[in-house]
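## retry 2 of 3
previous attempt timed out at serialization; input unchanged, resubmitting
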Amino acid sequence: MSSSLIRPSGRARFGVFAEPIDTVNHTDFDLRTPMGRKAGALAKWLGFNQFEFLGGLGPDVAFGVAIANVRYAGTGFAYVQDRKTGTRTECSTTRPLGMGFDFVQTPETGTSRLTSGALRVEMTGEGGRRRLRAVGKNIDIDAIFEEGDMTPLRICTKAGATGWVYARKTAGHTVRGTLKWDGRTLDLEAADVLGHHDWSAGYMRRETFWNWGCLAGRLQDGRVVGMNVSCGVNETSFQENCFWVDGRLHRLPPVHFDYDLDDLHGQWRLTDEQGRIELEFTSEGAHGERIQGGIVASNFTQLLGHYTGWLVTDDDELVKVSELPGYAEWHYAKW
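## retry succeeded, writing output
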């Protein structure tokens, strides 16, 4: 049976969903102003934002590819970092009014595209896998992200007075395919690169801020661990913090991010009040963007590095993490 996020009444469904949300039918949403009036067609169009990210994390190399449409502008970036040497190759593009961007509203399937500018991207979901094609200056990625029996995190939370955000996330799955950059070619599966995926959309707060952390790697006993945590978004009544061990989902309580705002490349510490997470993040490099465009703005730093510490499963198992690759993010946006 097909499952839509917006009910026939025009209201969103909130919660954490075990079953797939097949369609994020945002055009059916009864958007209201904070004063209770129905929003017009232009306000509904301008208020809806969407982005998608696919990343690969390995012992020797890591990459990230993102596309976003915030109506006034569309942005995309791709980067590859050699974790041994610290060298980074990246490209990005910004297009007015989201021209050249085509997003699907089906989180489980379909293809979202960036078809113009300095970077071309396709992200396709089908049958428990994602295919990524990203081509830009000195970067060519053709990768398959295999979810297998992994349980995705699917969540919808309230945003501001009348909005909502839906997110579908996974971390720690096998990645197959090839990565080409700066004249080099890498077999992703042979290099033990593991993946992360984020599909997010909604009527977000006019001014939005979040911290985000993610890791994917192999434990000393060979099991695969992936993690997704955040602070500042997706926390109203329900929250997105979780990790996976060999595809099994374990929920986490709210997570505190401790860092020096004057030195984001310094040490980060992630903790919670229940003792379920204790991690330190060390930066190895970053992709950043700063845009000040009057009614819109973005201050964004995505750090790549590694995590050390521990996580505690739902069964009270202490999972020790030792220098596993991951991301940490500081992001302010005015949509």
